[in-house]
Write a structure and sequence with these properties.
121 residues, Rossmann fold, four-stranded parallel sheet, alpha/beta
């Protein structure tokens, strides 16, 4: 299983919705290509939205880290905001500690993306 990290929290609700849509599309394409992926944003965004759960990284950090350890690799979706995301920074740090392969991918490059050994940063 591959953990897909992507930025999410933002002061504007429409930006969070755009980020959710980007990672959902990416995960759909990855799944259609045969990859087994998990995205906490894809899993929790619709639930948080419908039931009023918090959307800040602090609320989800422990849960996300636990799920990361069920995976064997980390893919970072490099959409706008990924460099400033405290959630992604934490996920990358944990992945480095666990010696997972880490790949940085662009949302529009999925069809040509094929991991080749990973980048252990």
């Amino acid at each position: 299983m591959i953990y897909v990290a992507s930025p999410y929290t933002h002061e504007k609700e429409e930006v969070m919705e755009e980020r959710y849509e980007a990672v959902a599309k990416f995960c759909a394409e990855a799944t259609m290509t045969g990859y087994k992926v998990f995205s906490p944003i894809c899993h929790w965004h619709p639930i948080a939205k419908k039931y009023g759960l918090p959307k800040q990284v602090g609320y989800w950090r422990d849960w996300n880290m636990e799920m990361l350890y069920f995976c064997k690799a980390l893919w970072v979706l490099t959409i706008l905001g990924y460099k400033d995301s405290t959630g992604i920074l934490g996920e990358v740090s944990e992945a480095i500690t666990a010696k997972f392969s880490i790949h940085y991918v662009k949302e529009d490059q999925f069809s040509s993306f094929q991991p080749k050994g990973g980048q252990n940063v």
